[in-house]
Amino acid sequence: MPSSSAKPSGERHVLITGGAGFIGSHLVERLLREGKRVTVIDDLSTGSLENLRGVKEHPGLTVVESTISGCPQLDTHVARAESIYHLAAAVGVELVVNSPIHVLQTNLRETEILLETAAPHHIPLLLTSTSEVYGKSQKEGFSEEDDLLIGPPHQSRWSYACSKLMDEFLALAFATEKSLPVTIVRLFNTVGPRQTGRYGMVLPRFIAAALAQRPLQVYGDGLQSRCFCHVNDTVEALVRLQANPAARGQVFNIGSTEEITILDLARLVIELLGSKSEIQFLPYSTAYAPGFDDMRRRKPVVDRLRECTGFQPATSLREIIRLTAQAGR
After folding, report:
1. Smallest Cα–Cα separation from 11: which of 81, 68, 98?
2. Which of 19, 108, 173, 308 is placed for a possible disulfide with 40 were both Cys, Cβ 3.0 to 4.6 Å?
3. Cα separation of 273 and 207, whole Å?
């Protein structure tokens, strides 16, 4: 697999930052199957070359092991891109709480540099944001035009949401002032094969514990609810939005609308995997700083995505658990 020393091909390619990550690696595979040439820029801080092992010998793939800011040929890679997917980010609640400086610098500085580099070339750029930007809203479903309610700055838990929201503002500013074709997506709990529980992701943690017959640890009362979207559905939505000029300059939710509490999720994982694991309730203080503030509900409204692309995520939660567990055995 070519490293940062490899010269980029003169042919047009799709540039994916964070392409060795969980979602990014699935997107890489999808685009290679479609006959695209793909260049990945990833510093492997949270991603892994193991995620790309299935395509590492593919002649259409170039991998540059670098940060965006540290990539010496960034302008060349960008100039030859037919489109850019910006997935590189610091992710996961544990990382956000424990390394707030890293989160802020990664999510702000790297995005700014990429936007500045892409703007003169007017390369269509899709920026992945997060449902976290909806903050402490108590609405039944979150839509893209909603007001956002972020928690106070002394709770580092909100630094991630703020950094990604600033990415959105910055990207739309480049769209307005520099005519950069930008599409923004807010991802809601994407899950599936290759996702790791290392940074606090709940479903892979539950599946790993259930397979090992260990207790499934539920924080708080477990009544906080989420909607889990299979990575293949997320990738389908990303590809459709990037290909649609009508999506430029807009913000889109991507996620399932099948809602479940974390407690019921733990019960469902145990049931579907035939595990003898028990459920263990833990206070948030055992894992996070005092005063950790969780979102009680996080359900997307995906009407805009459906209207623009004709698609909405449809893989059931039971199927998601089955596929993810099967890949992890």
Report:
1. 81
2. 19
3. 8
In a domain, 289, yes or no: no
Q: Which residues lie closer than 8 Å to 281 by C-beta, 6 or more apart?
A: 218, 219, 220, 221, 222
Question: Is residue 160 annotated as a catalytic residue, yes or no?
Answer: yes
Q: Which of 160, 199, 284, 288 is catalytic?
A: 160
pTM for this entry: 0.92
Domain ranges, residue 42:
13-191+230-255+300-313
Domain count for the chain: 1
For 88, the 3-state DSSP assignment is coil
185-202 residues labelled b (16+ CB within 10 A) or e (exposed): bbbbbbbbbbbbbebbbb
- For residues 52 and 218, the answer to whether their CB atoms sit within 8 Å is no
As to burial, measured by CB atoms within 10 angstroms (0-12 exposed, 13-18 middle, 19+ buried), residue 264 is: middle
What CATH number has the domain bearing residue 64?
A: 3.40.50.720
